[in-house]
């Protein structure tokens, strides 16, 4: 279990876990076996990650653990907790992410590491739009939607999910002070497809299907992906290469080959002082390569010619002693399962000192970002290779040479950019499987749609309205989404290069009833923490008793609320509102963290628009026992269904589409083998509109889309 760090309620969740749920597990016996107390991972910062020996089956089926299981499912759906293999938490920690970093996750699905990266971007909860962003990529179109579902739990405007082959992911461009420049990433996570032999303790299929052929088939792909990663890494940036395998052909062989052909441009970082408490073994420098029939080879020259298509020179260790010493392969991390009761894992941290030798004339990022001292203080261990870092003058000359070509390319897309439309890539340039995505259309500066919204909610003049987008070019705009300024830059300048699956956080939904009150759009709970700093009207401060009423009753009358709340509501027009709870330091027993809820003020009632699991989360944090109310919840749900006609007018009109998408996500989770802990709840499925036909078609053809990477081996998709 990992508690999401940027969550303002992280301390409360941790306290709730330790003081309530973990204590209830003490001296508990299930099927005659004593349940061990969960233990904090000694190497994970701030006691935010915990390990339990409870199996999935026992956790789901045991009546004694039903309360704990319900808590885990509910908090996971809200994005406050992630259930994840312990060793898969290591790579994001070693990236040393800061909120201003541009991050690429090359093989991101199913998304647990991506979620960690998003959390690190939002380390400061007071900054709604960090300068950095995460571009999460996966080659498998179906798994991309699982990735969207995972990322959406965290409600971030700084995440974009794209669908490309990681080994040939395109170079993106951004606009810097009116000129086009290549986008280089400050941090890259390269968690490549692997044979998965490190997961043998939990994955029974590994025992049945494992052969040495798996690694031999994957080595080339892994090297291509890692090479593409370092090409797109900014100078001084970090790339973490990781696998859930212990085979040196997939690990040290890939790193050694990458270091050798970099000619000193890359260096393995020494991370021995990072993550104290993590037991690790050094990378190895000697290994042999084995064929499926049991033949062993120590050197490439020993491989017979008829086997040289299966075994490649890059799979063998470097024989030159000086070269091998300069590579510092012992700086790689090998995590062995029996050391700390985890899975097996391999991690290597690479730092880029200068452009790759085949990219000598590659233009450099002009806007230098502040680097950590640990990243810039690299040693010239490979200086004897004779590599020279590219000079500023050579790069500037390259920029000048490429300007004419860029201008020609830009002229074609300038009109599209002016309209703020980022459509899917042309079919003649790319053959892509999966859904046909709706375009991303940014609101024009003079769009009449925005003026009533701005007036109704008294939005601050600093509100970045240019970052609002919709997913429809024609007809009524039903949802308004928001991205950060930096992601807007990426979207507008690369609409023909990328297949974007999803981006943005929903901030407003069209509500036909609202038009008569002055605004046709109600606030969406997903984006309320992003929007709240900019809203200066329609805010009602409520006490903790009012919050409990709002979260436990479907449509409570105004008379049930405190007199202060009734006075504030009396002078306010009907329509969408913000309900804000501020903790009182004089009452330490009450909840000591702020809550912001979306609500609706009617003639005689006041209600909250909050998804079910988020309601349960807030009630738990306030000390309300939600487990006992399980039957009451079911009654509440049936009551909510009866009021569906009224609710539909107030909620998004595409709910039936979202339900289908949620079903597809759950189906995909079961196919992929991930733990499906996500029960369908309102407003928490993927936010992709107008896909009814595509979704129906997908249910028939879901098994027809086979990615290139998944063809390589049956087990190539073993992740996390």
Automatic annotation (TrEMBL):
Cell inner membrane among keywords: no
First-tier enzyme category under EC: transferase
Pfam family, one: Pre-PUA_NSUN2
Subcellular location: Nucleus; Secreted, Extracellular exosome
Gene Ontology annotations of biological process type: tRNA methylation
Annotated region described as Disordered, given as residue ranges: 361-388, 667-720
Residues at the active site: 244 (nucleophile)
Listed EC numbers: 2.1.1.203
Key word Transferase present: yes
UniProt GO cellular component terms: cytoplasm; extracellular region; nucleus
TM segment ranges: none
Compositional bias of kind Basic and acidic residues: 688-699, 711-720
Keywords: Methyltransferase, Nucleus, RNA-binding, S-adenosyl-L-methionine, Transferase, tRNA processing, tRNA-binding
Annotated Polar residues bias: 373-388, 700-710
Binding site residues for S-adenosyl-L-methionine: 107-113, 138, 165, 191
One function term, GO molecular function aspect: tRNA (cytidine-5-)-methyltransferase activity
Family under the similarity heading: Belongs to the class I-like SAM-binding methyltransferase superfamily. RsmB/NOP family.
Protein name: tRNA (cytosine(34)-C(5))-methyltransferase
Organism in which the protein naturally occurs: Buceros rhinoceros silvestris
